[in-house]
Amino acid sequence: MNTIRSDNQILAERYDHVSEGQFKNGLILVEKLRVKPGDAILDIGCGTGRLTLHVARITGPGGRVVGIDPSVQRIEVAERKVRDMPLTNVSFELGNSNDLYRFEDDSFDIVYLNIVLHWIKEKEDALAQIYRVLKPGGRLGITTGNKDKPFTVKSIIDEVLRRPRYAWAVDAGKQASSPVNMSELKVLLEGAGFKIIEMECKKDPRYFENPIKCIEYVEASQFGNFLSNVPENLRESVKSEILTELEKIRTPEGSRIFIIRSLP
Predict the structure, then answer these.
(1) Of 104, 94, 139, 98, nearest in space to 117 by CA
(2) Which of 48, 51, 110, 160 could covalently link to 16 via disulfide, CB atoms 3.0 to 4.6 Å apart?
(3) pLDDT at position 194
(4) 162-184 pLDDT per residue, tens
(5) What fold is seen in the domain 9-260?
(6) Burial class (CB within 10 angstroms; exposed 0-12, middle 13-18, buried 19+) of 220
(7) Residue-level pLDDT at 256
(8) Angle formed by the axes of helices 9-18 and 72-83, nearest 10°
(9) Considering only CA atoms, which of 80, 76, 65 is closest in space to residue 112?
(10) Of 59 and 250, more confident
């Protein structure tokens, strides 16, 4: 997975409170994966452990659930939670998708990546390692962004960074994420040896009170990588222009809730 450049405790704690959208996507994924009592499960990119703990409750004392994440701060939040819960079948470890050698072959019934794949640079290697640690007949579940249908806020950020005052300074090779489209994902999965049972693309709207809340969410979700390809002396100016553009598309729904939708 991507290197954690500047994650911190504030971002980790904020993410734990604003990641409801990711959690809901994860609940749907877990249901489709038919998680059951006694399963051994690996949660790659577990963040602060919300979904991991939910899965641990399903698998019960006869199961085993391991959550790994490259952020020290997010693992600390997850471990703090589990200390206050009567769960003995779940553990959290510092690690990433390209570092699964600690796990033996055929170790897990299910592996899942919930809103994680787009952060992984070396996807072929990660999927090969996942295939190795899955038991024969094991299942892999993935939710991820679609490169062909970016969130509105992503399109706005890209548009601002293309403006002449910033384009010259932006390091295009330092993009925080590398999403794929449906066709590319299919090729990656089949290349790693997986048989695809189901693939679908859905809209995933997110609602925010105002543009500032939206940016706070994006910052927390990107664990310190937000605008990392922009020189530090320009980041506040870029952020200000992004907020201006977000303000232009606020909707009149309810108490003027701001909405992000994937593009058609």
Answers:
(1) 98
(2) 48
(3) 96
(4) 999 999 999 877 877 899 999 99
(5) Rossmann fold (3.40.50)
(6) buried
(7) 42
(8) 60
(9) 65
(10) 59
